[in-house]
Amino acid sequence: MSKSSTPVDDDLFAFIAAATIPEDPLLRDLRAAAAKAGLPEIHIAPEQAAFLQLVLRAAKAKTVIEVGTLGGYSAIAMARGLPADGRVITHEIDAHHATFARQWIERSDQRGKIEVRLGNAAETLGALPAESADGMFLDADKTGYVTYLQHALRLLRPGGILLADNVLAGGDVAHGTDTTPVAIRAFLDAVRATPNLRSVIVPLGDGCLFGVKQ
Ligand code: SAH
Ligand code: DHB
Ligand code: MG
Q1: Lowest mean pLDDT among 7-11, 108-112, 146-150
Q2: 1 alpha carbon to ligand 3 midpoint, in Å?
Q3: Interior CA angle at 182 toward 172 and 140, to 5°?
Q4: Cβ neighbours of residue 162 under 8 Å, at least 6 residues apart?
Q5: What confidence score (pLDDT) does residue 21 get?
Q6: What's the pLDDT score for residue 3?
Q7: Tens of pLDDT along 109-147?
Q8: Ligand 3 center from residue 74 Cα (angstroms)
């Protein structure tokens, strides 16, 4: 590897995470309560939550669409990057996850800014108007990412931001043959094949795609 790239080992990554804005008490409590309620512990990493929030703030985003709510961890983090009249519309297929998320959003500082829509996002995203979003965050079933990309290209305004979690597929993205790495490679191929979308992979958490629709 050339000197312009520094390999990040576990030790260096722990430093990077610790040097990021710390997780606040509400998100920490939400995480603990979600685990207790039996939700899978697959929320985004705290340093990735900080990254999403800052990207949206820097872009002056007002409307963000999320695919995959889980307990509302990322939705609350992103809503904090929006102005007071900003809005996160988040999509969730699991009623138990949606109910938990609604309860924690209601008791958070972001109540009123986040709407949880229950259903299969591949269908419910169709109800949203074209070019209505400043940002979109994909984090649901990885086999759906190519479909969600098609929705994103319709829903994002020109200049809108596409974000997607898990593009490193737990480290298996380059060579893995399981469903997830195969699905992520298909997604990354589709992203690259989209002329009006420019993107980079930011290796925070399990890998965060950051793209801009031209
Ligand atoms: N963004 C969340 C984590 C999402 S985990 C956070 O960081 O806090 C993925 C979520 O996507 C799960 O809650 C799962 O139930 C949901 N999901 C899976 N398939 C879906 C689909 N087709 N439509 C909507 N949500 C889906
Ligand atoms: C899974 C999904 C995620 O979005 C994630 O960040 C980690 C794991 C999963 O379905 O296993
Ligand atoms: Mg994820």
Answers
A1: 7-11
A2: 28
A3: 90
A4: 135, 136, 138, 149, 152, 156, 191, 197, 199, 209, 210, 211, 212, 213
A5: 84
A6: 80
A7: 999 999 999 999 999 999 999 999 999 999 999 999 999
A8: 10
Q: What is the pLDDT of residues 37-90, one digit of tens each?
A: 999 999 999 999 999 999 999 999 999 999 999 999 999 999 999 999 999 999
Q: How far is the CA of 55 from the centre of ligand 3 (A)?
A: 17
Q: How many CB atoms lie within 10 A of CB 214?
A: 11
Ligand with the closest atom to the CA of 164: 3
Q: Where does ligand 1 bind, in terms of residues with CB under 6 Å? A: 42-44, 68-71, 73-74, 91-94, 97, 120-122, 139-141, 144
Q: Which domains does the chain have, with CATH numbers?
A: 10-213 (3.40.50.150)
- Cβ of 206 less than 6 Å from ligand 2: yes
Q: How far apart are CA 24 and CA 53, in angstroms?
A: 13
Closest among 109, 72, 66, 73 to 91, alpha carbons compared: 66
Ligand 1 centroid vs 20 CA: distance in angstroms?
Answer: 25
> For residues 175 and 85, is the Cβ–Cβ distance under 8 A?
no
66 ligand 2 Cβ < 6 A: no
Does the beta carbon of 166 lie inside 6 Å of ligand 2?
A: yes
If you ran DSSP here, which 8-state letter would residue 91 be given? E
Mean pLDDT of 201-211: 96
Q: Which ligand is nearest to the CA of 44?
A: 1
Two tokens, residue 124: 């419910």
